[in-house]
Amino acid sequence: MKKQRLAAQARLNLDERFAIIGPATRFTPPVRGWIKAVREALGITTAQLAIRMRIKQPSIIDLERSELKGSIELATLRRAAEALDCTLIYALLPNKPLETTVRDRAREFAQRRLEPVRHSMLLEDQTVAEKRADASIDQIVRETNPRLFWD
Hints:
By secondary structure, this protein is mainly α. Helices cover 66% and strands 0% of the residues.
């Protein structure tokens, strides 16, 4: 029970932080990549950036290409950011609040668990009240280890 409360609090804390950050679309990289965009905006040449990073000039071109391909290493991207007097921000931004994701998974979990009951009740010409099933989602989220929702 304590782990469920801790997970719920962690979700709440992260959801609050994500809300401040805003939508991921705010951070869509420029067409030519962040390194090249910032470098050019600052008026820094590839040779000048290479000196600041203590690497050879052709490596800067390789860096910019690897960023575009998505194969650049975080440590290298961080070094480039520092050389450009920038801060690298690395985050995983959920597409919807974490609490919503957990509730959706809890609902699926509950529906899977209720399916055999629904089936046998239908055979007896009875139904499961949907409102009652939805009301139990809060209880399921509170009382069930969220790890079970992902099986």
